[in-house]
């Protein structure tokens, strides 16, 4: 009887650990994409967790050394209070189309997102939108894109946009825009990609963020070489010019 009870306790504890592994796997798979090894597969180090780099789908986190063909644009779903914000978004769409570059963005028809997409489409550019399915039903999906991709989560949206793009430009926006660019530049800091990340500092909008990054360097939380990963352009024309002229 004692042996039976000991065996039963072992079985229960092992099952609980296994369930925790499966739950953690599912959470990380949703966050980091399909690059994870499942709890039942075998990796080179016999650990279902795998190596840190393996948590990112290989075709998403690559070093981009080819000339830019598509550019991801992060920006707000609102227009902002200054008309200069929407005007700059329109100018960026025009500049991308003129340079022969495609646009990858969040897929919405509203705010700065809609403005940059409309201008790029009007100029004949390829425009790909990536939108979480939960938002598509709220009448914000752009109806005239070259292609609209629906994904399950916000995490998948960000990963897919980076996968499709060769560079990242950032217009004014709120929490979502800030989170997107900081995650992208963090991936660059970790050498998961080498795609340019450029803030378009319309009307000094990003001055506060840039000051914060300088403070982080002074406080010893950010290395100067990594501070340089966040580049800055005064306007859309300069930002696109930086991409076109960048040595590869």
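Q: What amino acid sequence fits the structure above?
A:
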């Amino acid at each position: 009887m004692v042996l039976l009870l000991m065996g039963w306790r072992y079985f229960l504890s092992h099952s609980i650990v296994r369930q925790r592994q499966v739950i953690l796997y599912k959470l990380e798979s949703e966050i980091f994409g399909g690059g994870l090894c499942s709890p039942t597969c075998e990796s080179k180090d016999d650990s279902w967790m795998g190596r840190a780099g393996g948590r990112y789908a290989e075709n998403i986190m690559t070093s981009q050394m080819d000339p830019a063909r598509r550019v991801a644009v992060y920006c707000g779903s609102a227009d902002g209070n200054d008309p200069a914000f929407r005007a700059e978004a329109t100018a960026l769409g025009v500049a991308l189309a003129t340079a022969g570059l495609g646009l990858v963005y969040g897929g919405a028809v509203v705010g700065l997102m809609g403005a940059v997409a409309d201008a790029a489409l009007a100029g004949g550019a390829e425009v790909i939108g990536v939108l979480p399915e939960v938002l598509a039903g709220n009448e914000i999906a752009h109806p005239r894109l070259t292609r609209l991709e629906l994904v399950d989560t916000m995490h998948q949206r960000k990963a897919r946009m980076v996968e499709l793009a060769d560079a990242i430009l950032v217009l004014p926006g709120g929490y979502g825009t800030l989170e997107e660019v900081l995650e992208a530049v963090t991936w660059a800091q970790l050498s998961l990609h080498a795609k340019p990340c450029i803030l378009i500092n319309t009307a000094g909008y990003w001055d506060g963020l840039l000051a914060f990054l300088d403070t982080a360097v002074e406080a010893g939380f950010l290395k100067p070489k990594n501070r340089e990963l966040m580049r800055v352009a005064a306007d859309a024309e300069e930002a696109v010019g930086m991409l076109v002229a960048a040595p590869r």
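Q: And what stands out in the fold?
A: The longest strand covers residues 127-132.
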